[in-house]
Amino acid sequence: MGLHRNPQTGAAVLPAADAAASALSPPPPPPASAESVSPVALLHREILGRIEPAEAVRLSEAELRARVWQLVVEIGAERRLLLNSKEQQQVARELVDDMIGHGPLEPLLEDPTVSDILVNGWRQVYVERKGKLELTGIHFRDDLHVMHMAQRIATLVGRRIDQSSPMLDARLADGSRVNVVIPPLSLKGPAISIRKFSKSFIDFARMVSLKTASSELARALEIIARCRLNILISGGTGSGKTTLLNAMSGMIDPRERIVTIEDTAELQLQQPHVVQLESRPANVEGEGQVTQRDLVRNALRMRPDRIIVGEVRGPEAFDMMQAMNTGHNGSMSTVHANTAHDALSRLENMVLMANLNLPSRAIRNQIASALDVIVQIERMRDGTRRITEVAEVVGLEGETLVLAPLFTFKFIGEDVDGSLRGTFEASGIRPRFLNRLAYYGLEQAFLDAIAVKDPPSS
Prior knowledge:
By secondary structure, the protein is an alpha/beta fold. It contains 16 helices and 17 strands.
């Protein structure tokens, strides 16, 4: 973790041998004259000088909080600091969060209304609530304070973040996904992005109440997932792709064996027979990397009924298409794309990344054969996530992959509070996969959901 300063002597010393103890010790605040130091800053400095990292490691959280509170009271009395009980409790909480938590971000991580936390240097902390970004009044002491928190996160997951390795992808203990970029790549101080791990499972009933889908659309998606069609969910960053994938996976038969593959584990499958695989980056020496493509290939040897890839973003797309074409029906994945047609183009480009020298027509044929349905989801400007299109992959016409829309979202207008209004319209087209639905006895239920009328008998 590099050199740091002894808070008493100011000399540069090496970090403690115990990585955990080193990670628990917050960086001392910069020196300042007694006249310019606030009572709170003085308490921070005094307490950090009296608690050794090794002692903090040995204590339980409750014992550490009691010890810090005791020191706050003692030092406040010694220095005759004018702090009331509420201010003393706040200082104690901040210090413990610095030592064993995530510093000023701890209240945001505990706030269930916050979905994303974005740190832009020490002065700015944004959060996302209900799909919209807002600036908070929270800030760090300085860039070193932000850097220390980033290093603690890296240490706890066995990684490093420094000038030789200035980017980090990691996962917190609660499953939240973290990305860190530090100088010199980040020009305004360390940048930390946290996508919080949802503690609640959102099913289709909840999606209908949130206006993500209509009841008919939700019923159609339930049937599609239950009948083992191959599904690709497309959308932009933060549009709700993983949440929708979780909801659709809830329709999977609990007797099936499912293998999930992700860069960072986010899926919350409710079935009992689930094997979760997570890719691994290379170590400091550039060795030991395990890619998603490696895991997809390995999953084929694990006797899966379904393979679910959290997000395809590279050559693993080819192996995913192969799996869908070789008996692993009902497989699912997500992809970053703006429309259902763009998702097909992106998928084709990712297959080309596998360097197999396949002609474009062969790739498109494989995509058309593998995929049954593409679901497009979007985060709209009012913050609401909505499914904007459900399309069947019909096949090839000449050199072009053809989609047939089953549902589309039609924008109507905007309310006075800024909420967008619209309807989910079914096309009434009979999909080509009706035989699959009939095999599960759900053909008529699906036709009812997409408003298909039987032709009148003569």
